[in-house]
UniProtKB/TrEMBL annotation:
Transmembrane segments: none annotated. PROSITE patterns: GALECTIN. Keywords: Lectin. Signal peptide: none annotated. Residues 3-134 form the Galectin domain. SMART domains: Gal-bind_lectin, GLECT. This is Galectin. Pfam families: Gal-bind_lectin. InterPro entries: ConA-like_dom_sf, Galectin-like, Galectin_CRD. The lineage of its organism: Eukaryota, Metazoa, Chordata, Craniata, Vertebrata. The keyword Cell membrane does not apply. Homodimer.
């Protein structure tokens, strides 16, 4: 998939970003990035089988030109190749809360601590069906 980039969209603390998509039949991984032009506050990378991980969700942030410390969650992996998923992302000054299709929640620190993000990028082995902010 070619990356889907959304710029100049206002995603504010307290709002919910809903992402619907379908991993490709042969998916190895895909990524959802939320942040600013250069920095990424939330990089969520569900890995079916990529970078030495299997059925693991890896979260990170990219600040000042470098990646920070990864946070891994191998306990919850509701993604299935070819099956639609729905992800709900909310955040506050301290953390992102990502609710997955099975109702499980991944928490990741809001390292920049910002209250608004304007850029989103979706890339990898998934087709994005819809993006909504409420």
């Amino acid at each position: 998939m070619t990356a889907v980039v959304v710029k100049n969209m206002s995603f504010k603390a307290g709002q919910t970003l809903t992402i619907k998509g379908v991993p490709n039949a042969d998916a190895t991984n895909f990524a959802i990035n939320v942040g600013h032009e250069q920095d990424i506050a939330l990089h969520m990378n569900p890995r079916f089988d990529a970078h030495g991980d299997q059925r693991t969700i890896v979260c990170n942030s990219y600040q000042g030109g470098k990646w920070c410390e990864e946070v891994r969650d191998a306990a919850n992996f509701p993604f299935q190749a070819g099956k639609e998923f729905k992800i709900l992302v909310t955040f506050n000054a301290k953390e992102f809360q990502v609710t997955l299709s099975d109702g499980s929640v991944v928490r990741f620190p809001n390292r920049p601590g910002d209250s608004k993000y304007r850029n989103m990028k979706f890339e990898g082995d998934a087709r994005i069906l819809g993006i909504e902010i409420k």
